[in-house]
Model the fold of this input.
Amino acid sequence: MREIINFNDNWHFWKNVSDVNINDGGESITLPHTWNGVDGQDGGNDYFRGTCLYKKVFHSDDLPKADKYYLEINGANSSADVYINGKRLAHHDGGYSTWRVNITGYMRGENIISILVDNAANEEVYPQVADFTFYGGIYRDVNIICVKETHFDLDYYGSKGLMITPKVEENKAVIKLDAYVNNLQSGDVIDYRIYDAEGNLVCENKTAETNCNLIIDNVHLWNGTIDPYLYTAKAEIVRDDIVIDEVSSRFGCRTFRIDSENGFILNGKEYPLRGVSRHQDRWQIGNALLPEHHKEDMDLICEVGANTIRLAHYQHDQYFYDLCDERGMVVWAEIPYISRHMNGGNENTVSQMKELIVQNYNHPSICVWGLSNEITMDGAKDPDLIANHHRLNDLVHEMDKTRPTTVACISMCDMAEEYVHISDVVSYNHYFGWYGGSVDEYGPWFDKFHERYPNKPIGCSEYGCEALNWHNSKPESGDYSEEYQAIYHEALIRQLFTRKYIWATHVWNMFDFGADARAEGGENGQNHKGLITIDRKYKKDSFYAYKAWLSKEPFVHLCGKRYVDRVEDITKVTVYSNLPEVELFANGNSLGKITAEDHFFYFEVPNIGETELVAVAGEYKDESRIRKVDTMNPDYILREQGAVLNWFDIEEVEGRFCLNDKLGDILKTFRGKLWMAGLFLTLAKKMSAGQPQSKDKKKKKKSKNPEMNSGVMNMIGNFTVLRFTGMLGMRNVTFTKEELLKINKKLNRIKKPKEK
Done:
């Protein structure tokens, strides 16, 4: 029988070391571990990216007796080499999947395992350009798997060795079981069994074949969050009545399809997918999570009432997929093929896709495989990009005939592009009302797509805006206030949730996450679009807007708890609840009862002195307070931290443009368009200089210039020049103070149009 030995303890770590023969010094650590838990979240885009060394000493006698020994690594970002006793055994590219190394025959009495892990820029391994930190390290469990000579396969892309394909037929399910076995001998038998959720044997078949069909009569369906029922399949290799290896996997029986008119259909019934996206990292922990962290994330996602999760932008921990199965989440799983197509990285997209599918095939929660995310950031015409997507799409259909493919398109990718129509279904990442445009554009845009392509299922894979502890009674796009995020999501809920043809919506994001290149919002190094802060300590008001629509757990929430000091005489107070009626009390006096079909309740409250507010809905209540002040509390106003240049340091000339003006206004003038063309040439040079290098110099490609098309202009039109240049850190493009002041001088020469 196989034995799995956890190998997380007693490692030593050397940062910025690539010599496996080093033995002195080193830091004693326990896995999981990342070297970017702090510097990957503090801004500056200067977190350490390079090679680090992990070493562990162990004695062979401490392992169970076995014929074969495999080292199993469940996540090492992003490339790694394994050595035992100084001999290099394996190399792996891809930081988010499980992989194994056969160490049999290379062990002696005392052994040293050395693992070099490298997250440096690399033109052949995804991801390289993206709005999140690429934390380096061995950040998931490491195990030793001990097996007999005959065993379920451990060599094929991190496979479990057992593939389960349920097919529901009326009130029964035919379960196709495919076992992958190494060194099966004549006379060996594979005992296939299925157990129900209570552990009762449902059906069984003993055969010498590596596949069989089992039938579950009166099948209990996996029915999303309503009833996420799971069976367990077990396969045993039996020789002379002795079990020599065993694998098992839970699975669920369900039918689903994605309809271009009626959205997601689960077990024959409409089941609108309304949920969130998730990044895995945490404050000062990075991606080195423990099971309790994953469970807390799932508990919070369930609390908001979501029934779907887009697990972005890479393969997540198996424990989290298990939680998705258990809680009934419908999951979008994807590889980190993101932002910028690299001709040298095509093989890596294939290997990462194979790992994703092989390792996760049995999870009933997974219903779509994502091919790529915003990959057309530099344009959608690249023939190699198109060919690689066709290749991936065909690969997925060959490996899994039960699930469709999808892509997440960047907003400015024209809906007519070939790329948009390669996958079976499609979703778009839109940020109208944050990155340009108006929040009212969502509904009309989706209606236009649906009218033009009525047979193509369309979803919204990202939408959101950033919010920190800034506050404003007249919130507007770009102020990073909690109030703007709340009204933004109110508008989006009304538009997206009422269009049932939208097959899925995924808020970007459930949690704030590390993005070390970001320098905005007053807290550098993070993307703050989360409904909850990166430390999971504070649920922003927008969290409760979704809870009001999605959760069946009765509640009432008073918004603006962090916005106490207010200058206006009459202030707006918002309450969210999934109950039909809310009454608000101010210092014990009722301000009336309000009903709201959209679950958003608005009250006008006199702001005099100190006011204690109590919102009551049925038997539930929530409390907050406000205080009248003469001037705006400066603690509520956005202050940039560590900015190269602040808006108030910029020279402004009356009637002329400057860094504080919006790109859309500048582009309304002829000279402004010429200036913008020059800026894009500068960006192209900076982006080219910052490209990761291919290990094979012959494969180095010239960087493509970013396209200055109408989609790009619409997206960035509401940005001030200063905000736009600051955000370019996400593309590894930075400007010095001197460069920004030089740009400002050029803008000072361009006249603003006269107001009519």
